[in-house]
Model the fold of this input.
Amino acid sequence: MTVLLVGLLAIYIAGVILPPCFPGKARIQNLVAHGLAAAAGFVGIVLGVAGLLSTAPLTLSLASNIPHLSFAIRLDPLAAFFVLTISLVGLAASIYASGYVVEFSGRVSVGLLGSLLNGFLLSMTLVVLADNGFFFLILWEVMSLLSYVLVVTEHEKPGVREAGLFYLIMTHVGTAFIILTFLIFFQETGSFSFEAFRHPDQQLPEGLRSIAFFTALIGFGAKAGIVPLHVWLPYAHPAAPSHISALMSGVMIKTAIYGLIRMYFDFMGGEFPWWWGFTLLVAGTVSALLGVMYALMEHDLKSLLAFHSVENIGIILLGIGAGMIFHTYGLHELAALGLLAGLYHTINHAAFKALLFLGAGALQFSTHTRHIEEYGGLLRRMPWTGAFFLIGAVSIAALPPTNGFVSEWLVFQSLFLSFQLPTLFLKLMLPIAAAMLALTGALALACFAKAFGMSFLAQPRSVHARHATEVPWSMRVGMGFLAGLCMVLGLAPMLVVPLLDRVTTPLTGAAISSQVLALDGWVVAPVTVEFSSISTPVLAMLLVGAGALGLLIARLCGKGLRARYYKTWGCGLNLTPRMEYTATGFAQPVKQVFETIYQPTVKLEQEFLEQSKYFIKHQRFESHIEPVFEKYLYRPVVAWLLAAADRLRIIQAGSLHLYLTYIFVTLVLLLLWAG
Done:
């Protein structure tokens, strides 16, 4: 494994250094940058699987002259799982990018963009491998800065720089809280070594543990996009190039999930009060429900997908929160089930969300717009992209037999097993969270019925949609790889669950692979087959069989019948795109039901004919939803900070005498304090 690890790091470093060495040769830069990134992704996949199968963690360390800093790396099952996830998405995004970056030729240096991509992948990989708090924070900052630079790639476009600045501020707020968390551990252990965090000489006092819990939740939650810390996602993800959006949504925000699991189950030894898990449960429920609700109102395809990242992070937290609650009461096998469900959804979300962002990039590449209302009829013009996007849409909507169905079903099961808890309150709360998850799933299905239907079906609603063509083969290969991964993760839980069990066993103290899988892995049954079980391979065979049977019956019964062709729902009219059901109309019923949350504003402008006020000449309708969190949380905070800064400006009078007075007073106060 050491050779694989060193090779992985060496390839990424080469991918950072070499592309700019070919100035003016965009094709060579493209080939070198994305070829090395793809090679690193392949090596990372092998390393991740090897780390999951290994019986002992791999550790490497290099001392430094800086106090408390050591370049320590540790590949244990948890780190190996995230290395595998990063590498899978990184491989697909790199192949995709080799065709996608052609769009940036002449505007952005392809070599620089490729170097930044390799650096970004390297920083994420090292973040999950770091075994020293100081080293982790450096890598976390590098990852944040590189992602910021990638977000503002097209900084000349309106709103991109503002989106990048918003993201940079939010990510540094999160970083500040992570620093506070590590300082709490440092105060008690005297070291930034993660090994010291795991095995301190004495446990943190209960009060400090609770403070560390909240600072970690806020710090990592800002990166993950937990409500109400999610506000940067709908700005940053649409602004970034699509393959970067896929990496940010698919794997970068998962580094925050890694941080939370590492903090709670590893550093704190899995010993925590019940309300910690309940807090994660509430945060996950709110994030999942509000994320999908706001996604349904979006008509910018990448903004829609960004809000779904909030939703799916919430689903992951539901599994982790349930696992923490069970672990508190000594139900270690159920704790392992909840954590396993959360990790399963982590890799599933990485696959289908990256696929959907790559699909959105393909649509933008071909139509030069992200607005769903300007699509339509693209399935005929872009059949490969349409098929891959459909697989991603079905997966994120958790329909069988895809991967999203399996992991969400496991999350449901972990929540429904609350009857084994001794507390009545929690027995009621977990099923309520399951009910909210069911509502989330229904709204997600509606959202992607809108996204796919309005984009790929019916008639084109713009000139660009009418002239759209299929994207280059490399982009299709990248999307096809992730589409295949979605199907494998859904149809082969017998391969995935044992690997995830190797991650959860050291953290929860219970191995459950043999209990979750039944009938040689063909059935997933968290408790017993009689209580609850599914088999996605059998479901897939039944679906294929039902489809084949329908075609056979149609063929047999249709012999001798004359085929008749009509326009679909012609109704005697000459159909035009203006008659199509719009994305706005699709979402309108949901907007009315949840009007209190959305707080929509409606603007209607009408111009009547001069001859009669009853006949409208022109009409313009606008409807917007209120960004509630920005209006009631962030804007007041920003306004207060600006007002405070304005009041403090009085101390910057520009007088040298005044500044000398400040220095004198400060020195006197320091002397008095020292005395």
Remarks:
- The first helix runs from residue 2 to 17.
- Residues 629-674 form one domain.
- The chain has a mean pLDDT of 88.
- The CA atoms of residues 397 and 442 lie 8 Å apart.
